[in-house]
Amino acid sequence: MALFKTKSLSQAAGKKQNPLENQNPPATGKSLTLRQKAILVVGTTLVGLLGVLYATSSTLLLSNIKVAEEQNTRQAVESVLSIVAQTKQDFSARFPEWSAWDDTYSFIEEGKPSNYIESNLTAQALLSMKVNLVLYINSSGELVYGTGLSMERKQKIPIPASVRKQIAKGSLLLRSANRPEILTGILSLNSGPMLVTSQPILTSKGSGPMRGTLIFGRYLDTAKIQKLASRYRLTWHEINSSRLPPDFLAARSYLLMEEQNSNKDAQCLLMSYASCPIFVNPLSSQAIAGYTIIHDIYGKPALLLRVEAAREIYRQGIANLRYLFASLAIVGLAFAAIATLLTEKLLASKRQRNESEVRYRAVIAQATDGIFLIDASTKRFLEANAALEKILGYTPKEIIQLTLYDVLLEAPEKIDRDIENLTAGQHFTGEQQYRRRDGSIVQVEVKANQIADPEKEILCVVLRDISTRKSAENAMLRQAQKEQAVNRVVKSLRNSLELNTIFSTAVSEIGTLLKVERATIIEYFPDQQLWRCVGEYRQTPDLPIGLGWEIPDRNNWVTERIKQLEIIRIDDISQIEDETIKNLAQTYPGAWLIIPLRVDSYSSYDTLSIPVWGTLNLLRHWAPTPWEDWEVELAGAIADQLAIAIQQSKLYQQIQQLNADLENQVIERTAELERSLSYEATLKRITDKVRDSLDESQILQTAVQEVAISLGVYSCDAALYDLEHRTSTICYEYICPEIPSGKGLTLKIDDWPDIYDRLLQGHYVQYCFIALPGALVRSSKLEFTILSCPLVDDRGVLGDMWLFKPRTEYFSDLEIRLVQQVANQCAIAIRQARLYQATQAQVEELEKLNRLKDDFLSTVSHELRTPMSSIKMATQMLEIVLKQAGALEADSTKVARYFKILHEECQRETNLINDLLDLSRLDAGAESLVLSSIDPKIAILHIAELFAERIHSQQQQLEIDFPPQLPHITTDLSKLERILTELLNNACKYTPAGEKITITARVKESETTISEHPEKLLLSVKNSGVEIPPSEICRIFDKFYRIPNSNPWKHGGTGLGLALVQKLVTYLHGSIRVESANNEICFTVELPV
Predict the structure, then answer these.
(1) pLDDT digits 0-9 by tens, 148-185
(2) Beta-strand runs (E) in 539-661
(3) Angle ∠(100,106,109) on CA atoms, nearest 5
(4) Please, which residues bridge with residue 128 across strands?
(5) Which pLDDT score, from 0 to 100, does residue 1045 have?
(6) How confident is the model at residue 286 (pLDDT cuts 50, 70, 90)?
(7) Is 894 helix (H, G, I), strand (E, B) or coil?
C-alpha cells in the first residue's frame, strides 16, 4: 500500500507541474496523419450540419433563444456547484479514519509529540493526501500539533497566521459535545480560499468522550476548479476583494440582495448549493456568464464564482438567420481546432507518463523506508532502494542475489503461505524479524501487496526499522509494571494509619513482589544509639525470627553510610570482611539490599540533624544473586511510599493527640462559659433585686444571700465602714449552719492594715492566714480562703464583702469578677438608697410646709372675708351718700378718683379671697358640680361679648372659629364660663396692640375604642405677639407663679388665675395644655362631651 501511495503522489505531482503542457508536438508523420484525420472529420461534420442549421435557424425565435440561453447558463452554474459540493463531500470522506483512529485518540490525549507525528505526518504523507494544512486541537481548544505544507517545495511550512485566528476558543471549527458532527467548507484566508474539514476525534469504535478536533485543509485554485468542470471557463474572486471587475460588482450587488430578500439563512445556503441564487449576464456577443456566491464554512459569502460559457445558442440563432454558410466555416474551424488540441493532448500525455515514471523512481530512491520488489514465484529480490541497505546492510547488487528465505526469520512454509495470500489480492501488515548482513537481528514493520504487471507476479514490500521504538516500548512496559507494583503497595499501605499494620503490610507486599526470603523494617533510635527491627516478612516459617533484633550504632560503617542516605547493595554478605557485621552475616547470609527511610517531619531527629528514620532491608538467603537496577528502583519507590506512610501515621497520631487536647479545652471552655453564663444570670438577678428596692438593708441582705448561694461558699457577709472612727461593722450575713454568726461584730480597721489598706484603695484581697495564734476573723478560726471586696463608688469606699471558702480551694477570676460587680452594684444601690432617704426627708418637710401655707391662706381668707364684706357694704353706702351730695357727679374731682380707687381695690381683694377659697374647696374636693347640657357656641359667644369692648379699647383683634355643628356637652356652665373668662383675661392682659386673639372649638374623636366619652371637645385660646420661654412652661400653672420679666408690676394679677383654671378643668374631668412657639401662646382645654 505504501508503494502505491508513493506512486500516486508522483503521478499527481507530474500532472501539476508538467513541463510539456501547452507545447506544440514535433512535426512527425504520425502527427500529420492525425491532423488529416481531424480535417476529414470536420469536413464530414460541416456537410451534415448544413441542413440542420438551416432548418433550425428558420424556426427559432430570438426570444426563445434568450430563454434557452439563460436556462443553459443556470444549468451550467448548478452543475459546477454540484461538482464543488461533491468535491467537498469527497474531501470530507477521506479523513474519518484519521479522526476515529485509536492512535490519534491517544496522541491528542497525551498532548505532546510522539512517534505518531514521525509515522503519519511526514511531508511525503501529506503530499500523498494532497493537503496543505493539518491541525490537532484538544477539547480545551489548545493546539496540540499543526503544520502547513507547500506543494511546490514539498516541505512543511508554519501554520498561516490567518488560520490561527480561525481556531480561537469558541470557533465554529472546533468540535465539542454540542457540535459533534463533521464540518466541511471553505475558509477565506490571506493566502487564498482553502477547503477544510473539521472532524471530532473519537476512538475507532466511534465512542467518546470526544478528545478534540482534527482539521485538514487544501487550497483552491483556478486550475483545480477547471478540472472540476472542464466544459466551462471558470473565474472566481473573493467577494470582499477591492479589485473586482465591473461585471463581478454588478453580480455581487444582485446576489447579496437576493439572499437578503430570501427567507433562507446562511446555514441553509451552506448546506444546499441548489438553493443559492444565480445571476446571468451576457458578457459580449460571444460569451455569457452565470454568477453565484460560494459561502465559507461559517455560512458567510466567501467567493464570487463566474461560469463563463460561449453563447452558442445565440451565435447559432444569429448565424442561422444571417450567416448560414459562414457558421458552417466557423464550426469547421472549431472542429479542426478540437482535433488539433486532442492530438496535442495525446502527445503531451505520453511525455507526462514518461516523466512521471522518472519522478516516481526518484521518490523511491529518496524514501527513508526500505522498499524492494520480489518475484512471487521464485521469492528472489528483483529491485531495492538505497534505504534497504541501511536496514539490512546489503547493497542493491548484493540483495538481488538473495531470496526472501535468506533474510526473513520465519519458517519457509509460513513465508510461502503469506506470499500465496498476497498473490490472491490480500495485503499484509505486521512486524517481523530480519537477519542483517552482519548476522544481527533487526525488528521491522512490514507492509506488502501485489502490484500489477502483465508478465509476472511481483510483490512490493516496504520495511521500516522499529528497533528504537521497540526498545522504548519495552522500557515503558517495565516502567508501567513498576508503577503498578508501587500503586498496589501504596494502596495497601493507605488502608491503615497504625504503624504496626503499615510495617507488616509493607514487608509482606515487597517480599512477595520481589520474591525475597526476608524483608524487614528497622527503626533508628538515636537516643539509645541502636537500630531495632520493628517489622518483618519471612518467606518460610523455619527462617530465624528477626523481629525485635537490635543492632548497635557505634563503630558501624553500614549505619554511617545509611545516615548519609546511601543505598547499600551487597551481593554476598559473606564476602565482606568486617567484624561489625560478621555475626549478622552468619545469621542472615546472602544478598542484602538496604534502603534508607527518610521522614522529614520526624521532629525527634531534627535536633540531632539526622535525616534518616530507619531502613527497608531485603535479603536473599539461599541463592544470592546481584541486585538488578530495576529491583533497586522498585524497592526505592516503595521505600519512598513507606516513608510517606510513616510520616502520615506520625502526623495522624499527633492530630489525634491535638484533637484530644482540643476536646479537653473545649470541655473546659464550655464549663467556664456555663459558669460565666450562670454568674451573669446571678448578677442580673441580684442587680434587678437591688434596683427594685431603695431599702439599704434589703439591698445588702439580698446581695450576700444570692452571692453565697451562687458561689456555694461557707459564709458571705457585708460590713459598713465608719471612716471617722476607723471601724468596720458586719451588718448583714448569710452563713452555713456550722459557721458561727458574726453579725454585729465591729473590727478596727487599723488592726488589719494589710487587708484594709488595699480595700480602702478600692482593690480586692484574696488571702489565707498562715499563722496568727489566737486571732479570730469574723468569729471563725483561721482555716478559710477569704475574699474581701470593697463596696466602692465614685465618692469612696462604703464598706466591704467577705466570702469564705475551704482553705484547699480558691476564688477563680470569674468568681472574683462576679463579686466585684455585685459589690459595685451594691455600692451604687446604697448610695441611691441614702440619697432617696435624704430626698424623702426633704419632700416630707416641704409637704409639711406647703400644708401649713395652705392652712394659713385658708384661715386668712376666711378671716378677711368678713371685714372685706363690711368694707364693701360701707363703700356702697358711702357711694349712695356721695351721690346724694353730688360729690361723684364729676369724674375729675379728687373725691371721685379716690372713691374709684377704693372701689377697685376692694373688688380686687374680694376676688383674691374668693379665688383662694375656691382653690381650697377644689383641693379639698368640697366643690359640687351642677351639670347641664349646654351649647358650647352660646357659652363661647357670651363670654367673648363680655371682652369685646376691652379688646377693642386695647386695639387688639378677636377671632372666633368653630364649625357650624358642635355637639352639646354635659358640664357645669359656671365653671366653664370661669375657665373661658380666666383664659381670655390672661390673653387680653399679655397680647400687644395690633395682635390677634383667637378662640377655636373642635370635636376630637377618642383615641381608645372603649370609652365613656367617645368624643372630646377642644377649646383653644391663642394670642400672638408674645411667647413663653420653654423653661417656664412647666411652672405656669403653679400658685402665685408669674413669668419673670423686666417689669413684674406692668400687668396686674396674683398668679392664681391659671392655677384655678387647671383645677377647674381637672374637676370637670378634662385636661389643659399650653404650647408656645413662633411668637404665639395657645391654651387648649379638652373636655368630655
Answers:
(1) 888 888 888 888 888 888 787 777 777 766 667 788 88
(2) 550-552, 568-570, 591-598, 612-620
(3) 110
(4) none
(5) 59
(6) confident
(7) helix
The answer to which of 443-447, 504-508, 583-587, 937-941 has the lowest mean pLDDT is 583-587
Domain carrying residue 571: 475-653
Give the residue ranges of DSSP H helices in 576-628.
Answer: 582-587
Asked if 580 and 503 sit in the same domain, the reply is: yes
Cross-strand partners of 279 = 291
Mind listing the pLDDT tens digit for each residue in 340-350? 677 667 666 76
CB 517 within 8 A of CB 543: yes
Give the per-residue pLDDT at 762: 87
Coil/strand/helix, residue 923: helix
C-alpha radius of gyration, the chain, whole number: 64
CA distance 811 to 802: 12
Task: Write the DSSP symbol of residue 276.
Answer: S
* 87, 942, 990 from 1062: Cα distances, Å: 114, 22, 19
- Which residue among 421, 438, 465 closes a domain? 465
612 located within any domain: yes
Whether residue 835 is contained in a domain is answered as no
Which of 415-419, 605-609, 929-933 has the highest mean predicted lDDT (pLDDT)? Answer: 415-419
- Cell 532491608 belongs to 617
Alpha carbon distance 699, 761 (integer Å): 23
Total tally of structural domains belonging to the chain: 4
Dihedral sign for Cα 714, 718, 723, 727, please: negative
- pLDDT in the model for residue 1081: 93
Please, what is the average pLDDT of the chain?
A: 78
Whether residues 355 and 444 share a domain: the answer is no
Grid cell 537496577 — which residue? 629
Please check whether residues 627 and 511 belong to one and the same domain: yes
| Type of residue found at 897 | R
469, 115 Cβ separation under 8 angstroms? yes
Average pLDDT of the segment spanning 852-869: 67
* pLDDT (0 to 100) of residue 864: 66
Count the alpha carbons within 13 Å of 894 in the hemisphere toward its beta carbon. 0
In a domain, 246, yes or no: no
Q: Which amino acid is at 76?
A: A
The per-residue pLDDT for range 202-246, each reduced to its tens digit, is 877 766 678 788 888 988 765 555 565 566 677 778 888 778 888
Residue 1070 maps to a domain: yes
Query: What is the average pLDDT across 49-76?
Result: 69
Q: What is the pLDDT of residue 151?
A: 84
382: domain CATH number is: 3.30.450.20
Q: Which one-letter DSSP state was computed for residue 740?
A: P
For residues 589 and 644, state if they share a domain. yes
Instruction: Give the three-state DSSP class for 644.
Output: helix
H helix or E strand, kind and range, residue 387 = helix 386-392
Residues 600 and 502 in one domain: yes
**Pair 952, 1083 in one domain:** yes
| Residue 400, Cβ density class (10 Å: 0-12 exposed, 13-18 middle, ≥19 buried) | middle
Cell of 954: 386695647
Q: Which whole number is the average pLDDT over 256-271? A: 66
Pair type for strands 796-806 and 957-961: unpaired
State how beta strands 931-934 and 969-972 pair. Answer: antiparallel
Domain end point (choices 465, 488, 503):
465
pTM to 2 decimal places: 0.32
- Predicted pLDDT at 15: 38
Identify whether residues 489 and 448 lie together within a single domain: no
Grid coordinates in use for 81?
456547484
Domain check: are 500 and 642 in the same one?
A: yes
% of the chain residues with pLDDT over 70:
79
Exposure string for 886-895, b = 16+ CB within 10 A, e = fewer: ebbeeeeeee
Q: Are strands 784-793 and 428-435 parallel, antiparallel or unpaired?
A: unpaired
Burial category of 880 from C-beta neighbours within 10 Å (exposed 0-12, middle 13-18, buried 19 and up): exposed
C-alpha cell of residue 105: 485518540
- pLDDT mean over 367-382: 88
590 grid coordinates: 546472602
895: closest CA among 879, 872, 916? 879
